[in-house]
UniProtKB/TrEMBL annotation, chains A, B:
It is found in: Cell membrane; Membrane. GO terms for molecular function: magnesium ion transmembrane transporter activity; metal ion binding. This is Magnesium transporter MgtE. Homodimer. Residues 142-205, 206-262 form the CBS domain. The gene is mgtE. Acts as a magnesium transporter. Belongs to the SLC41A transporter family.
Amino acid sequence: MSVSIMTQELLALHISHNQAAMLRFIDQHPLADCAEAFSQLLTERQFTEQDVCQLLTLLPLEKQVALFGYFSLTWQEKLAEQMDAQQLTQLTELMPHDERADLLTQLEPELQQQVLDQMDSEERSDIQRLVAYPEESVGAVMTSDFAVLAADYTVEQAMQKLRSIAKQTETIYQAYVVDDQQRLQGTVSLRDLVISEPSLTVGKIMTRVLIFVRVDEDQNVAAQAISKYDLLALPVVDGQNRLVGIVTYDDAMDVAEEEADRHMHKSAAVDFTGNLKEASVGLMYRKRVFWLVLLVFGNLFSGAGIAHFEDTIQAYVALVFFLPLLIDSGGNAGSQSATLMVRALATGEVIGKDWAKMLGREVMIAGLLGVTMAVAVSMLGLWRGGPEIALVVAITMQIVVIVGSVVGMSLPFVLSKLKFDPASASAPLITTIADAVGVIIYFSVATMILDFPPTV
Amino acid sequence: MSVSIMTQELLALHISHNQAAMLRFIDQHPLADCAEAFSQLLTERQFTEQDVCQLLTLLPLEKQVALFGYFSLTWQEKLAEQMDAQQLTQLTELMPHDERADLLTQLEPELQQQVLDQMDSEERSDIQRLVAYPEESVGAVMTSDFAVLAADYTVEQAMQKLRSIAKQTETIYQAYVVDDQQRLQGTVSLRDLVISEPSLTVGKIMTRVLIFVRVDEDQNVAAQAISKYDLLALPVVDGQNRLVGIVTYDDAMDVAEEEADRHMHKSAAVDFTGNLKEASVGLMYRKRVFWLVLLVFGNLFSGAGIAHFEDTIQAYVALVFFLPLLIDSGGNAGSQSATLMVRALATGEVIGKDWAKMLGREVMIAGLLGVTMAVAVSMLGLWRGGPEIALVVAITMQIVVIVGSVVGMSLPFVLSKLKFDPASASAPLITTIADAVGVIIYFSVATMILDFPPTV
């Protein structure tokens, strides 16, 4: 059932005050969809936050936590502000540790303090530890509730332990074996435990952990590792190799999705990853205006080039006919190269020192593309302006496609070398650079071939 | 350890013929990295396919299968061609059902037949079923080895069953309950089984399956569902609601990654998702040339516009100064809008009927952006050409930004309505359209304000 139909049904049940039917409805639909429908109804002010909070209290606690977890952080915050301290504390006690830390940092200091005060000191310090990690770090996305075993447990004891913590632990499918210093020794999957002799020790059946990540690394490193090594969860260690958390595959999927969006949007010079439908006009204006204005000033270089060659243009106005075509072609070829390279750098398929190797190949590819496009455009040149113009546009096309491609493939390398995000080598930026270079190449070639005295 | 260091170490061990050390090395490194290092060595012709095949035979069969699975399909195919039929059959018998079907379709018909002949008829028909699904469908990415239970099993019997199939089943963490017609009844997680009373029946503890997917749906639907609902695996049913397979989270991650790459590359008008470093010059030429040449012809419209206004240009050469700037700005604003919209449509955040609603907002945002950019550019206009030129470029800027944005946001809707991929609304395409429209707007405004007689 589509969420928009669910929204209508929920609204109808709400208007008729049929609470029992509403609970049945929630029972029969995926919680993620229910949360989406409620968010929709909240946005349209058909439901108030109090309505949703009250409905939550009617659900079994476990389901309440799960449903609440599917709301966006913004809605979680607004809902939390309408709950009494007891409901909120109950909820946060059972929420995944990473999600509740995210939520608490969003709350008013007063409310935050109320919730923290009601927690026992261990939970409190856990939250304080989690919120201290920088935003893009592994620490900010990991969870601190994971299953820990000792190497001298028997398989039977291990199963017993996992059974007892199953309800409040995010995953029991992967358990971690640590020594008395909390240092990571190995890992055991529930699958391994289930198929092993109950009397064996965990130390005997565990596998060495070959893949882990430091808590201060970038989240994308964790997400990429989980995807590459097909992991359910990735252990996270601190500087002393002590196990401090795990990143689960579902969090890794969210990180990867956000990263892909960010890349995509950077490639169009707009840095926005929220919900497009909910974003205000003012927000979208702010997200877009910076790059657009900056690129206007970048285009001054093209203008300056044109100004420099005004006499040539005056004498051969037909040259203007080919101007958009030639400068666009350089930009298009450059955008292709930049996009391919940004992605190859992001996946680690290509690294910094490969630049020289890639350059030679890029020149060959661009050379071939340039020949093809020069042939296409020279026919237009013949038709529009005669053989001399045809020669000018063909030579220019060949050069701008090579230059554009080389700039496009190199810029991501340069940015990454300078510790900027390679994805900032966006199509509009490449276009602007290719335009300026293209104008100068075009009119220089024209001036030479059409036998003008050099302009000043 | 980085893969390039691993490559060097493996090469050193290979040259010194130290097979025992090589096996130890494989034992101590993640198999995904080993496969990457071997692929590198194969590409550089430091290892032959026979070397790798021979090494594989020295590994325990389970490890052999896992390592082989981390090679790309291209390398799997080349390696398979060097194996004797017995080694290949052993391997394929234990491979995940989806991966072995992919591999077999790549093999020479003769070799393919040899392998199929050695399999028992059930396995053979499983493969034949899997390879019959269209390339982008759920069927082509699902696996057919999943854990099935009956509702009248006790928890204890269910555990027994899962234990017995654990080795050859891709995941036992999620088991599916079907009736005697293979119709999906419910699902039980291993976690549920582990924490439940052994004497309860599966029917008692199973949960209703609310989320499943049809085998002929697009793979992206499955990947999105797994991410949205945080699933480990998604059940796949045929037209009669019979369970025919599952899609696991790791396959969903691969699908999502490929889709993100595809989007990213479409946005730059280049359709390539392979390994950039391994791709040949010829392949890259073919992947890039089509769009580039097509866009050259698209640019003819800009040229035609310019030709139409040649007299205006001749009289006011200063106008050419602002040409790249104005047409680029329309294209840049349009690329931003298109990128935001393509992503919103892909995630389902925005649907077809939202177009009208989004249009009004887009005009407001673009109006504000246009004003800002018009102010910036009019100052340049004053400086370069006086108040009349300033007025022309300011008005043109305002119009092209609005037109560019509206085209950029609408094109993905139009493409999706026409059943094309909205992601084809690439930056270069938008740029080309915005250029042509921009040229006409610019010189029309100029002709009006600078008080020319209309040209023919």
